[in-house]
Amino acid sequence: MNAETNHPERPRHTVPLPGCHPVPLASYLKGLGLFRLVAEQVDPDARCYWKNEGFVLVSNLDADKLIDFLLNQYRPSPIMAPWNSGSGFYFQEEKLKEKDPLTGKRKKTGIRNQPTEATRTIDGLLNSSNPRLTDLRTCVQIAKKILHEQQLTEAPDDNVKDFLISTLRNRLPDSYLWCLDAAYTLLPAGAKPPPLLGSGLNDGNLEFSNNFIQHILKTIPDQQNKKRENSDKPLHSCLFGLPEKTLEKTSVGQFDPFNAGGTNAGTGFDSASSINPWDFILTIEGTLLFSASFVRKFQYSQQGQLSFPFCVRSVGVGYPSGALADENKEGSRAEMWMPLWKRPANLYELRSILGEGRAQISGRPARNGVDFARAAVSLGIDRGLSEFQRFGFLKRNGRSHFATPLDRLPVQRNRYVRLLEEIDPWLDRFRSRAASTNPEPPAGVASALRRLENSILRLCQTEDPAR
User: Fold this and answer.
1) CB atoms within 10 A of CB 124
2) CA distances, 313 to each of 300, 334, 365, 391 (Å)
3) What number of other Cβ atoms are within 10 A of residue 313's Cβ?
4) pLDDT tens track for 318-358
5) Peptide bond into 22 cis (omega under 30)
6) Rounded Cα distance, 244 and 271, in Å
7) Rounded distance between C-alpha atoms, residue 129 and residue 223, angstroms
8) On the chain, which terminus has fewer CB atoms closer than 10 Å, C or N?
9) How many whole angstroms separate alpha carbon 103 and alpha carbon 163?
10) Strands lying side by side in the sheet with 332-340
11) Where are the alpha helices (DSSP H) in 384-435?
12) What is the pLDDT of residues 372-426, one digit of tens each?
């Protein structure tokens, strides 16, 4: 990454954003989302970096102009997911007053004509005349036309979904491809969702794209609706961490476990899920920087997750709550290692770093978190990175997942880590035997593997020959 360049004809402003931290993931992503929007829509020479656990933006916008840009100029990215049942593209099935004597539930007519909050959100977008929403509105209109042509009145199954995604890719504007590539990895076996956006812009009962549009309609006023409040207090709280009462009681999804509510999550016995609407908007905008299409095609895996930037299989070591259950598909989707850097980088450089997203050891791709820690030591040095924040997409909320912060890895040259390459063939065999279920290995073998992997992680964090 290059150092900041000076442009005497354009004053540069360094704006620290203490509201954007490396943890939780929502806070990390909203910093990246804000930077991407400024670089794409205002200042192509904008740069960003991390300092003292906060995000720093360098651009031709000072703090006041940054707030003004988001309130009055920001054009939302076209983010939608017509394959999800809660996306707002599908009505609910009509029900009769008569109840089924066996189930006690109201009988269904088979006709889908009942609006939902999600469909009303899409209608609100289509009825809006705000020119800032043109890109988003146009993509929704084209998507509705495609669904009508394919006679889809309900969310498609996997086979039809693959065809729908291909059709969307072929017919929608290029600006939508950032969303599509972040939501799905295209593999020969079909479209697979990477973990960052759940199961394709959806996680459990929360549909990300429709909630994004809901928050957009609340925060960006329609020109014909002058009564809608256009307060900058939520934005100041979002970007600068000011203690304003700007949280709304609504689902936050996997990105912010701290505000997800639940038992012992507040001063009482429990609390509701809440979020600042601008936090949600900028978080989703930030996910578009992690596009699966950038990763080298020969890096794809059968599962699809490993072709996503900085994404590897979960390993339940290196953090206090680590367990074997975190390593299977039921307990975890995957884990991601988010890079931090101290030198200013422009959008092209950042996209190159995030898009490459490859880590290799002993001539092969890193398979899990322990492999990535070893590879990150040299990867970060070569790419100008200073640290990696490790997140695990772990099942911690019923059927839903949380982006759980697990560990922080400082990037420093570590000559002892390379010595592990000598035992890699043996280590691969040992991992295979310890993870085998036929026959199931003794508990002592699995315990030994966990102790070994914990030791490797500690070695990556500290250049100490005793480790």
Assistant:
1) 15
2) 13, 5, 12, 11
3) 22
4) 887 777 667 776 667 889 999 999 999 999 999 988 877 66
5) no
6) 18
7) 7
8) C
9) 36
10) 311-312, 332-340, 387-397, 400-410
11) 424-435
12) 999 888 666 667 889 999 999 987 766 678 999 999 999 888 888 888 889 989 9
Residue indicated by tokens 């095609």 = 297
Burial class (CB in 10 A: 0-12, 13-18, 19+), 412: middle
- Encoded tokens for 42: 């205002």
Q: Where are the alpha helices (DSSP H) in 248-340?
A: 277-287
The three-state secondary structure class of 388 is strand
Q: Which amino acid is at 156?
A: P
Contact 67, 235 (CB under 8 A): yes
176: tokens are: 């939508």
Provide the residue type at 71 as one letter. L
pTM exceeds 0.70, yes or no:
yes
Q: 243-277: buried (b, 16+ CB within 10 Å) or exposed (e) per residue?
A: ebebbeebbbbbbbbebbbeeebeeeeebebbbbb
Return the amino acid letter for 51.
K
- How far is Cα 147 from Cα 155, in angstroms, rounded to an integer? 10
- 94 Cβ contact list (under 8 Å, min separation 6): 108, 109, 110, 111, 112, 113, 114
Per-residue HEC secondary structure of 53-112 comes to CEEEEEECCCHHHHHHHHHHCCCCCCCCCCCCCCCCCCCEEEEEEEECCCCCCEEEEEEE
End-to-end CA distance of the chain: 32
* Contacts (Cβ under 8 Å, ≥6 apart) of 52: none
Give the 3-state secondary structure percentages of the chain, helix then strand then coil, rounded to 5.
40, 20, 40
Tokens of 378: 């040299």
Measured CA to CA, the distance from residue 39 to residue 198 in angstroms comes to: 27
DSSP string, 262-308: EETSSSSSEE--EE-HHHHHHHHHHHTTS-GGGS-GGG--SSSGGGS
**For 442, how many CA atoms within 13 A lie in the half-sphere containing its CB?**
3
Q: Please say whether the beta carbons of 93 and 116 come within 8 A.
A: no
Q: Give the pLDDT of residue 64.
A: 96
Q: What is the DSSP string of 168-181?
A: HHHHS-GGGHHHHH
Q: Which amino acid is it at 285?
A: E
Residue 17 CA to residue 239 CA, distance in Å, equals 5
In Å, the largest CA–CA distance within the chain is 78
